Amino acid sequence: MTEKKILIVDYEPSSLESLARILKNIQATDGAQAYDLFKEEKPDLVILEAILPKLHGFDLTRKIVQDSQGTVPVIILTGLYKGPQYKHEAVANLGAAEYLEKPVNPDVLLEIVSRLLSAEEEIEDVLPDPDSVLSLIQPKGK
Questions:
Q1: How far is it between the farthest Cα atoms of the chain?
Q2: Where are the domains of the chain?
Q3: What are the tens digits of pLDDT across the range 42-62?
């Protein structure tokens, strides 16, 4: 498995540090900085706090999902928006891959990150390369 890039976004230094201890990552402390880093670094996964300065986490999720056409999973972590209605909104309407309430169990988070990153690799492994697809659909020469 190749080294994966994970963008972690949280306004709270202690949350950022605790996530950084368990995951190799790129870090941002506000939504606007995170969006710039997302475009520059092209991470394989994004973990973000819902409440962010400059660009709200829900808006950032929507932008990442749209820009990546859903190929970059986003995990939303929050200590404020608790309840099934927020999870439903984040997953169904924003395109988040997961929605977790703080405090987050590190083992659960690692399992989710691992599942999302390996699912991405499995999809790539089963997709044929573009040349073989073209050879199948182009008419044979005479």
A1: 67
A2: 6-137
A3: 999 999 999 999 999 999 999
Q: What share of the chain is helix, strand, coil (3-state, %, to 5)?
A: 50, 15, 35
Token code pair at residue 81: 């928006």
Indicate the residue type of 13: P
Q: Say whether domain 6-137 belongs to CATH 3.40.50.2300.
A: yes
The DSSP code for 103 is S
Q: Please state, as a whole number, how many other Cβ atoms lie within 10 Å of the Cβ of residue 109.
A: 19
pTM: 0.78
CA gap 46, 75 in Å, rounded:
6
How many other CB atoms are there within 10 angstroms of residue 31's CB atom? 24
